[in-house]
Design goal:
- The protein is an all-alpha fold.
- It has a domain of 32 residues.
- Strands 5-9-6 form a three-stranded mixed sheet.
- β1 and β2 form a beta hairpin.
- The longest helix has 32 residues.
Length: 743
Amino acid sequence: MGRDYKCTEPGCGKGFLRPEHLSRHRLNPNNRLTDRPKQIYQCLNCPKRFVRNDLLRRHQKRHERGMWFRNSGGIVPSEVCQIEERRPSQETRSSESDSIPRADMQNSSVSPNSYENHNDEPDNLNAPSTAPPLDQNSLPDSLHHMDANAGSNVTSLFWDPSFSAPDPLLDFDWLFDDMSNFTAGDATLTSDVISPARTGISDMSPPSFPMGSQGIRLPVASDPSSFAPWSVVQGRLFEALNTLPQHILASPFFLPSCLSHFFDLYFQNYHPHFPILHQPTLDPTQAPPLLIAAIVTLGSTLSSEEGHFQTSVQIHDSLRYIIFNSPDFEPPASLWCVQTLLLIQAHEKMFSTRKHHQLAHIFHGAIITVSIGIESGYFETFETSQLYLMKRGVSYVSSYQGLNDLELSWRQWVEIQSSNRTAFFGFVMDAQHSFMFGHTCVLSVQDVRLPLPCPDYLWECGDVLEWDRLIRKSPELPGFLPVLKKLIARTPIPPQCTAYGRLILLHGLFSVTAHLKARDSVTLGVGGALPDRTRQSTVDSWKDTLEKAMDTWSFCLVSRSSSLALEASKPLHRMAYVAIYTDITDMHILAGAPSLLGNMLSDADLVGATARVQTWSERPEAKRALYHCLLLIQEILFTGKPYHASRDNLSLRPWSLYHAALILWAYGFMEGRRNLCQGKEISYTAEEYLVRMLMLIRNDEDIGIASQQTSELLGAVRDSLIGCRWELLQEAYGTLGRLIDSS
């Protein structure tokens, strides 16, 4: 579609679809134009400013709906968003009247106890739609942006100008302010469901979230005739992977029936809790073969055939480098290319060998941060050449052949949603692995300025007309940062938030925890003077605030419908509590486990880790970590059904179980060093240990003797890890065995 309205300012030349877009562009104070606004209207609830009073009123309605603030044509003062000055100038977003009609959010309020309905299609969506067919001019502004000329089919994966926030760089204080900008309704909701601040462990409630299905979901057996398209996929894979050794390509792994089975395993077991791919429009015969290779290798890790798993490991010896040599990897990378690299990261980090795990750790930073100059005009205003691969932009499909306007709108919407979900996937892995594997975070919550994912019924919709009907009546998506900020202020998550969105918010808390711990490790005088009491009080304050935020987050684990994303969240939410108060790397060093980072450990490392764990075990906060470790083990192992990690379709559940066991052992080990003559004659079974420890901690009684009786518990955890293919879990099995033998 042509852009008939051109900016005549020398050196600009931007084109617009509608005259009002050009008018707003000319009113932008960043442009050197003569059409200066006569008056600036300041929003009283956020830093935004507007050149028209009607735009201010529309913006204020967003505050009434619970939005913090959104870039709906306003201006953020330069002192509020310093880093935005380096962002590419873009067309000012059109007003709400230019976008797809949305349901009135004030008429769709949901009580805080109604979380179970979050995945269901709203009742009002069943009403017949009287809206006219969607045309190009009624698209959301984000879709208008898709078909621009040079550079505008490239977009930053982590930044959407529709959702902005003050950018205090590494300063997280803005997340912990008094929330004075939020509505009174939010405060009322919070006070109704949150208990007063706890004074100790004895005030802790004993919530428990028993783990649900722990088995691999097997796809329905397919008719042999359905394998015909997979012969085409097989040929495309052979062509894309032609540099692999011949014995790998000749493996039964590449049989059409196997490829189809692995593809289905992926979408049954992995896609539900990381839904970054749009299954209704993903045609394996047309999709990039390297993306299909990443999907089927990840699916094959859940295959009952050991040989298929080993073949996937061999494929991954080369798969990443094949992508690096692909033209689509050149900046700006294609969206499918970034998705493929992240799926490779997931396979190698959590399913494969120690070698692959360490390579994935190395390349995680390379995927996120790459020093490379971008020549695209979209980035010409950036002053630095160190750009983020995932931030630096992804290229979208520039055109679709043979589609009408409605189908084109749908496809473009799918790409925008997919890019947002992919960015969140990268962020989740970054935050999650900072604690689970001791890695340093590359991303911060301030980097993720995107709306939360759309409802599942909209994302999984495979019919364009049905999508058109649903999207017209869907509520506007809240931004990640505003919801996270409210969560830290103990406001429950909006009921319409999807399971994937809840998982993302949990990892927002993971990320904030990691960055604040890193900040305090510097400001608390590590290697220097001891901190003063005021500073230590500040540290304790943010820890308590984050723990209460996690209490609030845990409300959303209650759901009427099953969800793999929520199932994956259960052990991770226990680990999120533990992450506030522990350093898992020190626990591994103390236990003599292989280094999480793959580096050689010296005697000095052991001495330092021992001293830090000793100090940790003497602090009252250690009991908070123990409490959640005990609950995690109880929820996984003691549910009335045997737990086998080798049959679990959630790879981090057994890894969390192992971590919980290590932390309990470390505390008991330190208690044994302090009380050499006590507790040696006592022996508890695993169940007795759990029950006694939970009772003592909840009653705020001494756990010195009971905490040392970990042998049977370690044995129970070790038995659950038998037969795992992931090499790190095999190492965990060996580590637990050595600890049992030495006790």
